[in-house]
Structures are given as C-alpha cells and as structure tokens.
Amino acid sequence: MRPTGVSESCFSLFSLHSENALFGMGNPLLDISAVVDKDFLDKYGLKPNDQILAEDKHKAMFDEIAKKSKVEYHAGGSTQNSVKIAQWMIQTPHKVATFFGCIGTDHFGEILKQKAEEAHVDARYYQQTQEPTGTCAACITGDNRSLVANLAAANCYNKEKHLDLDGNWELVEKAKVYYIAGFFLTVSPESILKVAKHASENNKIFSLNLSAPFISQFFKEAMMKVMPYVDILFGNETEAATFAKEQGFEETDDIAEIARRAQSLPKVNKKRQRVVVFTQGKDDTVATIGFLSELVQERPLEECIRAGHYAANVIIRRAGCTFPEKPDFP
C-alpha cells in the first residue's frame, strides 16, 4: 500500500467514532456460497476458477445453488464489503457504517437485509419490483471458486426516489467520511456527484476507488466529473496504470509517479491535499477496507496502513469476504 501526499493532520479534524460516521453507496449483492461438483460447473458452462457476469443461461443457477445442503449467505458487493469490514474492525458502536444501494422485493433481498443487520451495518436499501436482488454465486470445488455475479437490482438505484429523500439525505449529512467504489459510476454518477459535492463543501473526507481498469476506460467522463471532489483515491497498480494511460500522463509505469500526478489533478477543496493510495499485490481491495476503519477513528496515516495490511492478512485466509468474531488489532 503506497500513499502519496499525506500529513497526519489530514485525518484529525473530526470526532468520527459515532453512528453513521462512515457512508458508503454502491452495488449490493447477496453472496451465495456452496460446494458443487464438476457436473454442476459443466451444466452452466463454468470454469473451476473464474469470475464472470451472469448471462441468461446462468439465471436458474442461483436458485439451484441456494438449495444445496451447506449454503452460506453473506452481504456482498464491493462497497458493502468495504463498510462491513470497516464496521468489524471498529466493533463498537454498531452502525458506524451506513450503506445505500438497490435491491429487489424478494427472498434474497430479505436475506441480504438480515445479513447486513448481523454485520451491524446501517443498510438503507432502495427496493424496487422490476429486478430481483443482485447475487454473486461462489461455486466451490476443492480449492477453486468460480464466481458468477448477477447485478440485477443493483443497476436500478434511483437518486430521486432514495438519495434525495429527506430521511436518507440526513444520514449523508451525518457522515464524516465517504467511500464509493468506481463500479457505482456505471449505475448512478449523479448520486456520487451529489455526495461528493456535499463532502467538499463541508470539508469532509470523500474517497473513491478506481475499482477496475474498464471504469477508467469507459466511464472516464463520469469519473473525471467526480475527481475534483476526491480527497482520497484508492486503486491497485493495474488500475493505476490504466488510469494514467487514459489521462494522458507522459509515459511512465512508475506507480509513485502516477500517484503524484493523480494527486496534482484539479481539486475543489483546497483545505485538503489529495491522498493517493495505490496498492501493490494480490489483496489490494481488502487493504483499502482496513485503511477506512482507522480513518473513521481519527488514527494517523501509519495506523490506517497497518490496519489495511492486517485486514488483508486475515481475510485472504478465509473463504469469501468473511472474518472471525473480533479483530486482533489494537
């Protein structure tokens, strides 16, 4: 994890260890994990170790895998996982983390609400009837996991019918740190922009994750509308390289140099110097999550980074985005 452009005072302006201090908004998915056999993989044309988006031929698979004898459910999706693990790292009080996203009015949606509650996240979902709750099936064979994601309702978030409602916007105003994955730029860039502007106007911390190379490539315009409000930019080395290429940075593959150039991009709130955190290694996303948990507790940068490494170390040893009851982190 390599940060650029930081002083400890960046993180010491608020008393953040309170309910709804951390706000996340993104694509909620119900993770469904079960052990399957080769016939199951063959039936749906799956490879033993893969990550794909669901096609029509996979739709029946989610109900079938849910009927397996030892199925496990977890609240998932990039941003929801992030705030969920930040909440786990913090422990108390509960509901430090708030999450907004769209689900369906179905059985999987009810399970997702239950799992978010068990994780002590204050999940306020927008529910609609057109699409079913988004799911991600983890088909386990031996040491292999084949992941199939069906975004479904996650693509249906509606700013006017959810974010703009007074009761929901009050939760946005209550937060002090904001984290949104770039994936949500494909769903509701106008929602991200509204939250980002609020954070900037009130000198709060707004963070964005590059999420995947295709976001920088194909959603560049939406991303760069948000960038002037970004206080902390997260990404891994592959995403950073693609971002640099799309931004027309002079030829460089040096991650530190790319971070410095990203840091110097135009910024609205001059009271905060932009922090750029580019991770290098297999488990970059989890490291980002741990970073957030310390950020909302006013810890200095070094502690944020140490927490990121700790969270990554714990979670890569477990199946899916799961964790023990309590962290062993001071």
Automatic annotation (TrEMBL):
Record-linked InterPro entries: Adenokinase, PfkB_dom, Ribokinase-like
Cellular component, GO annotation: cytosol; nucleus
Pfam family, one: PfkB
SUPFAM superfamilies: Ribokinase-like
Stretches of the chain forming a coiled coil according to its record: none
Function summary: ATP dependent phosphorylation of adenosine and other related nucleoside analogs to monophosphate derivatives.
Family the UniProt entry places it in: Belongs to the carbohydrate kinase PfkB family.
Protein name from the UniProt record: Adenosine kinase
Species of provenance: Oncorhynchus kisutch (Coho salmon)
